Amino acid sequence: MDNNKQKYIQDAMPQKWFEYANELFKSAELIWASSNRLNHISGTIKFCSDTSNTYFLLMGFSLENLLKGVMICENPELLNEGMLSNKLKGNHQLLDYTKQIETISFSREEEDLLQILGEALPNWGRYPIPTKHKRGFKKRTKADQYHREIFIRLFRKLSISMYDLSCSGIEAPEGVSLHGWSNSEIDLMKKT
Question: Domain 3-191: which CATH class?
């Protein structure tokens, strides 16, 4: 097997998806903490609307990485031929990914958040206008504590599920074995 293809498959192991999702999660939480501090100083406890779009964008990308990591755990063939399957790219409709995951059930609240994020990622989370006039102008959702709590709960749920599915290793395509892994942050999530 081509060494580049083997390295690609190894670099696509679930631990890497978690690490990137976790970086996005921490960035989102830094924005949340910063905005709330600024709002508290001005005498209000509402989330600052000028960072709401960015918060949703980072939430969405974080959960998208975890959803894709879980999909790879369930079906390592999504990395066949040393490339991401089309099922893993070109779509930010996060709710669509949940329908491909067999080991996790999602609450109505979680599905609602994923629906909002699926609208935010390709459009209003990134740009001031839709990418095509035919998509119309959907109302932007403002981030609040309710969305944040669902985000944190879903982040933990997906992280733990991906970890449980892959911590002992996975047989990947092309004869590559993705080794087991451990993560102290996920171990802590499991205890709380």
Answer: mainly alpha
